[in-house]
Amino acid sequence: MLLQWLRTLWGHRFLCPVCGYSGVFHMVSPSTGRREHARCPACGALERQRLQYLVMEEVLKDMDTRQMSMLHAVPEKIFIDKLRATFGHYVTTGVSGKSMDFRFDLTSIPFTEATFDVFFASHVLENVANDLLAMREVQRVLKPGGFAFLPVPVIGVKTIEYLEPNAQEEGNVRCPGEDYFERLRSVFSKVKIYTSDHFLQKYQLYCYEDRTHWPETMPLRPKVTGLKHMDYVPVCFK
Ligand SMILES: [Zn+2]
Predict the structure, then answer these.
(1) Separation of alpha carbons 27 and 13, rounded Å
(2) In this structure, are residues 221 and 166 in contact, taking their beta carbons and an 8 Å threshold?
(3) CA of 185 relative to ligand 1 center, distance in Å
(4) What angle do the packed helices 131-141 and 180-187 form, to 10 degrees?
(5) Helix, strand, or coil here: 86?
(6) Cα-atom radius of gyration of the chain, to the nearest Å?
(7) Per-chain residues with Cβ under 5 A from ion ligand 1
């Protein structure tokens, strides 16, 4: 019994690429239900954040980032200090939040063309009604050769547009599906999709959750079978 428990525990030991913690990841219980092996207990990084971190590391590995600029929209705390230390010029924006460098809507970015090398917005576009306009704005302010990390939460195959923002989903106006990347492809010259499968299992980059039962407050989300779900990070080149 003890041996079995230890084997189980050992099989569920992971490595956090963000902070280097090695060990068990914690379960989280958002309103959508419990999610296993989700959070790094040391730095708090979730599955999607670990994947995003690894993708950024891979894409930026041969670049002199001290000579580069990043515009980071609606930044998550876990990334701010690291990215500020990585890029020579790093600015944040959001529609709320005291510590933002700027406050503006992504459908109207107050910078001239070709201002930034890199743009990053995680789980933001599902919140923007005119997301195509936001994509075009991001593309506009990127320098030639620049690129944007634009991950959204993908559930199911087809994107579902909501008739109105769902307050129970932080105001989301849609539930992106796997076909959402086609929208990015319609704006950017090239889109490369990284998935949870791209990196080693030890980082635990999947969502272990039951998507066959969503809360009643999320009636439009598609039900998906299986308890292990892939995550995605599209890298969009100007
Ligand atoms: Zn960590």
Answers:
(1) 13
(2) no
(3) 32
(4) 40
(5) helix
(6) 18
(7) 16, 18-19, 21, 40, 42-43, 45
CB atoms within 10 A of CB 149: 20
33/186 Cα distance (integer angstroms): 34
147 within 8 A of 118, measured Cβ to Cβ: yes
Alpha carbon of 209 to ligand 1 centroid (Å): 20
Best CATH choice for the domain 2-237 from the list 2.30.30.40, 3.30.530.20, 3.40.50.2000, 3.40.50.150: 3.40.50.150
- Kindly report the pTM of this predicted structure: 0.94
HSE value, Cβ hemisphere, 13 Å, CA-based, for 71: 27
3-state DSSP assignment of residue 156: coil
Give per-residue pLDDT as tens, 4-20.
555 555 668 999 999 99
């894409």: which residue's tokens?
59
From ligand 1's centre to the CA of 228, what distance in Å? Answer: 21
**pLDDT band at 99; cut points 50, 70, 90:** confident
Could you report the per-residue pLDDT of 112-127, keeping only the tens digit for each? 999 999 999 999 999 9
Centroid of ligand 1 to alpha carbon of 19 (angstroms): 4
Structure tokens at 235: 């890298």
Q: How far is the CA of 172 from the centre of ligand 1 (A)?
A: 27
